[in-house]
């Protein structure tokens, strides 16, 4: 993507019926890393996240706590969902709540438009509903209950009984969009990624689409339909609209034209809403469909999708309190192939923290800065003539930077990190092979040539670290910032987040003469894990 283009990316908006767990945090840090990368690449970037506050799930959570739904969501959003962004160092540009006027009013505008265009009609409905999913379930996701729910039909995802709902609803003519959707997936093969998600969506739509119930009349916690206020808009379609209302749909055309369409990153559990229903709604309204939908996998704990309702939920702070937010971000983004499921375990987290962060990256940074302090009084040395081994490092840095950028374009964050990590591994090997301490000894005993060689070796390490700081800053903003300052780069080159990431692989950016300062261990030893 050429620099300067609009890059609008979203997380799903989360249900604040309960507190966040590491699965929610996973989506948010992934989107944040992608947004930071593009922002640093000079793209006109906008990252949106937020909360999905209507619907029956919320109504019941509030009732169970003896407060109004508005009080419940206000409390949860303020006490748990805003703080999550700080806990995980997420630099979102906006946070939308579906109870905000900017959303509610323009959702009504949108549905009035669909109604006026003839895409909505009234009908009777009877089907099994899962409040956990906030969805009428298709046959394929209904299973027989076991244990306490023996004899009942339960949701395949939540394992909780389904409720038979029978009411007058308004329907959206989703069935009319089958051909246009299939055409969309065919002409834009990247619309749904990865391929496994695309295949699932294509096969689902190929089997034919049923019209979608878009209103409910048995409760009132939602946005009223503008032409029939006895109905509230179905929570899922209300929620999908957030992506448009947050960037000015219905209120600020200029901003909307600048930002829309968006890239949506979602968990695979909510892929169909985003890749089928959402584009159909947009087509019906005469708006552009999203740039693309990327479905990531689930975090599994003990082999099952982690969730609060199944009591496998882990709070993000349980991890960040021990390992820090950079380690959280690094771990989930590097250890799980983005798009596939991944198992979480404390042992794996702890082992990778020690091997990759503390011993790999952290140690490289400490050793290099300490040696420049010791052998060159804290001044980045001028490199002398480069040998083949030094040029190899330069090539590795250039390749890693361009491969990482290509991977990020494809939303493959894990691949990008593994390309960047070739620099960490190569530099650690380079230090071992070049033995700067031995060169220092020889130069102390008067061997001038070795002094020059020592300068080249340490410049190579410091410049490699400069590239690493730039390339890793979207993933680990805190430790890279510390490294950036310690290398003297902040004083000479300006703020880390202003360094053009797509030029990170160029050699010779760190200026000889920069002042290197002490660097506390970036990833201190963790004595005990939970
Ligand atoms: N409110 C809807 C989304 C509306 S978007 C218009 C919703 N909310 S949610 O809070 O239940 O989940 C939101 C997202 O959290 C999921 O799509 C997924 O991205 C993430 N995850 C929730 N549990 C997860 C795991 N166990 N693993 C990975 N991601 C998980 O659905």
UniProtKB/TrEMBL annotation:
Cofactor: record remark: Binds 1 zinc ion per subunit.
Residues in Methionyl/Valyl/Leucyl/Isoleucyl-tRNA synthetase anticodon-binding domain copies: 397-490
Biological processes annotated in GO: methionyl-tRNA aminoacylation
Residues reported to bind Zn(2+): 130, 133, 155, 158
Record-linked CDD domains: Anticodon_Ia_Met, MetRS_core
Annotated localization: Cytoplasm
GO cellular component terms given for this protein: cytoplasm
Protein name: Methionine--tRNA ligase
Organism of this sequence: Microbacterium hydrocarbonoxydans
Gene of this entry: metG
